[in-house]
Amino acid sequence: MSPSPALPLDRCIAAGPDGEAARVRLERLRETGVALPSDGAGVALLAAILASGTFLPDLILGRPERLAGLLRDPWKQQAKPRAVVVREIEAACADVRSFAELQRALRDYAHGEMLRLGTRELGVGLGAPADAAASQSNWPLPEHGLTLEVARELSALADACLERATRFCEAELRARYGVPVCHDGAAGFSVIAMGKLGGEELNFSSDIDIIYIYASDNGQTDGQAASLGLHDYYTRLCQAITRAIAENTNEGFVFRVDLRLRPEGSAGALCNSLAAAESYYETFGRTWERQALLRARPAAGDGWLGDRFLATVEPFVFPRTSSEKTLDEVRTLRRMFVATTAEASWNVKLGSGGIRDVELVAQLLQLLYAGKRRDLRERTTLPALHKLGLAGLLSDHEVRTLSDTYRLWRRIEHRLQLEHGQQTHSLPTEEGGMACLAQRLGYAGADQLVARIAEGRAAVRAIADTLGDPVGGPPPRVLRMLAPTTARGEVEDDLRAAGFRDVAQAADNLETARARLPAAWLEEAIASPDPDRALAHFRDLALRASFGLFTLLRDDRQLLRLLAGLFGISERLSRHLVSHTEIWPSLTQELGVARPREDAWRAAFAARLVGCDDEGALRRLRLFHGEEILRIGLHDVAGDLAHDEVSAQLGRLAEACLQEAMQRVANTLAMRFGRPEAELTILVFGSCGAHEMRYGSDLELVFLFDRNGTTSAGMDHQEWFGRLAQRLIGALGALLEEGRLYSVDTRLRPSGSQGLLVTTYSAFEEYHREQAAPWERMALLRARPACVLAAPAQAAPSDFAQRLAAITYGHEFPEAVLRSELARMRRRIETERAGRGPLHLRFSPGGLTDLEFMAAWEQLRHGATEPALRTTSPLQALAHLAAVGLLDAQVLDDYHFLARTILRLRLLRDDQDDRLRPDDESPLARSLGFGRPQLKGQLATRMARTRGAFSQLLA
Description:
The structure is a single chain. Helix content is about 60%, strand content about 5%. The protein is mainly alpha-helical. It folds into five domains: about 1-145; about 175-315, Beta Polymerase, domain 2, CATH 3.30.460; about 325-475, Nucleotidyltransferases  domain 2 (Four Helix Bundle (Hemerythrin (Met), subunit A)), CATH 1.20.120; about 570-810, 2-Layer Sandwich (Beta Polymerase, domain 2); about 815-955, Nucleotidyltransferases  domain 2 (Four Helix Bundle (Hemerythrin (Met), subunit A)). Strands 2, 3, 5, 6 and 7 form a five-stranded mixed sheet that branches. Helix 19 (about 435-440) packs across helix 20 (about 445-465), helix 31 packs across helix 33 (about 715-735) and helix 34 (about 760-770) packs parallel to helix 36.
């Protein structure tokens, strides 16, 4: 028995692209029992659908009855007017009573329309006999010009679905919460279409980019049982609309909804009032947002409000003048998109010479010229190119080239997406993929299509390249990380390449602040010693900063660079700066001076306190203190100050605050308890006394007065000065809103914590002659008078410094005892303070403490006879020893290195612990201009050399 002849449908499929896969789809369709077409046009149409990929066949397989409706649908041969789409959706949703029913009705109608529009995109078999089609050597050529018409129809479908969802969801909300009432005008709500939807150029797998806008925040709903504020009301409305369109139910979705182009992006409010949107674009709007708004239009909701929104943002989108910076930013955007595309699989949308290049040519020219020429304002790409040609901004040849190639790219884009219903723009790379695509597009073979693509790319690229390369501006990677449409994985890859350690946290920080984070800030964060830390602080600043601050940092790149360095180094100062925005106005004035003149600095300090009561003075002191620490830190980070200059300025600040606070406390006490006929001297010890003040250092103080007696009001001197000391400690250490000045440590007083807080000069002298331990004598080496409260009748303060020197250097220890005691003290510090944890830059073997003990050893041995050694500064003592040949000068260099490294480590963290933890090694190294291995090598070499020198003297 001879085999049956092949049916026309089978023959047509066999002659088409992807024949085997199409045949399998046909068999699945036959299994449903649906009646298949037998006429030539119907056969050719179904064959084209089955050969197009899986997307359109699956729409039929899900609802087989759609096939018969499609075959008799008159609108598959012509564009369906918007009014007809609206009427059909109304009819499809006429019986909808619940949200779930609305979702089902919208999806069913939209999928039917997708099928109809897919057949219009294929554009074959609408009249040709099946046998004639099957007999042709090539698959029938599609009708040209339909792709962009289909794109308009897809956009109309999205608009109608959004409108129906908006009206249904608002009716449900009003039934529950009442009608929204606005106190400063009419209440209103609008869905603004952006991107391809705004330009009425939607493709089959497009997300729809939208922005939700409502009229005003001033009001609430009038519900009796429950009422909502307007922002809450419209937020719920937006959530419902988004779910109605985009939620993936059993029936799928209508369109994916992308809200990332809204003000503040993903981190911002779901919807914005008109005023809030205006404020955002005025303050934070960027060039890419101007570019996005070129295609904005009202898609659903209250048209009058949509028009008001467009009028409101018009000055932002179309300024009267455009700068070179605008041109550079759009050029850089082009480079950003091209850089993300692999040439091995050309991306028809983003690849060089692709859809985005065509759009960028039109949009850049609009950004530059449409501010003055309203006739150039056009949302859709091809009409925009035509208008630019009429204006003489593009030649006739350029318009024809861009337009023809754009039509081809959009056809290719649609065919790629019809294959599997996926949002893809890359050409196939699998074997036979290009041949199949070529046949679907009507080309003789893959080589012909590849040649046409190469020709089109070259032509578009040649025109787009006339836009030029960016002269300056942010690198493409920075703009890509800040673009709201960049995928999270790509952002993390870029962050990793830029040197971030915790890329997940850094990506979160970008997500939170990218809408407000200027590209220059991210650039400087990447260049800072610690990009992770800097970005976190820039995030906080972006969310808190005023428009004036953004302007300040935009106009002063050097200041921004200093700030980034600080943000990447200092946790403490960064938090202070971000928290106290009142400091910012002085950034370019007082804070810009690395070494202010002493008289000017003192005058500025005094001027801050004029007219203040005691509480106000404490607050002003803290503000001035914070500004000074910031100023010093900025110039330290910038390399403008050596470590000893930093310490000197920190010490000057500490002593000024101590003197001012003491004087105010004393005046307050005198008004109530009289003034003592005795002098008070406050000694500073430790780092402040040694002129080695560090960031975050405590003040180690000892309070002394010259004689016992009573005040004019009869209070004992001891009690009066004790109260002064207690109040002063509290004034310096209290944590106010403006921060804390200094913690005070008084344990170096006679008898330590067990002794009196305040003691007399003579008792102090007697204690150190008769009872003090050797370590206390060493502590005295760093003690000096910081401020004196003179007695009322005293002509001039007494010079307690001479008496202090006599106490410190007037008692000799046997050399062996002294060496043994210093070595014992050093071992104890090493064990108790350094321990076995990470390297301690002060207390570990070879740390700064070794050098301080070496200076102390020589000072205690020879200070009585060598005036140059009678200094509270270990650095000065070591410098003298090196100058007279008693010490290798290299040790002095090691002191400078360790002191500078400790200062920078203190900036890095908000604590006084000088341990170098592993996580701090890289940022510390970068802040000092080293690589991590180089820093570790330097520390190892220098600390080993220091320990060797120490051992020679004291081991």
